[in-house]
What does this fold into?
Amino acid sequence: MSKQELPVLAAECCAPLVAEPVDQDEAAELARVFKALGDPIRLRLLSLIGAHEGGRVAGDGVCVCELTGAFAVTAPTISHHLKVLREAGLIDSQRRGTWIYYWIVPATLKRLTGVLALPETLPEALPEALPETRPKTRPETRPEALTADAR
It folds into this structure.
């Protein structure tokens, strides 16, 4: 897949998930990005790139050589995770000689921020207003309520 074909979340602002339902295409697009963020290594990589001064400037970037030392996995594994982040539109890259440099794609992060934002009309105390949804555990089924011979 060439860079021109990489799918990127639409840059235009969107309504928060809780303000109006997302359509099927948008849900699939968002799920792909959230799935990319669902791995601890990828989440750390995104954070390391974003926290690095060069990682916030398109075209500048962070060398992959600066990222691999932070993990106890092999360089090919890091490259795979970076590829997943790039294909999700969260980062972009450029090869310079033998090294690849990565930077954050701000439009994608802004889009995710907009999707996860709470709309102005949603009450701040919403969790307190909702009834308890967690099932109650009967005392006799909790491990501390069991007798030694029942264990």
Q: What stands out?
A: Helices lie at 24-37, 40-51, 64-67, 75-87, 106-116, 126-129. The beta strands are 62-63, 91-96, 99-104. The two ends are 56 Å apart (CA to CA).
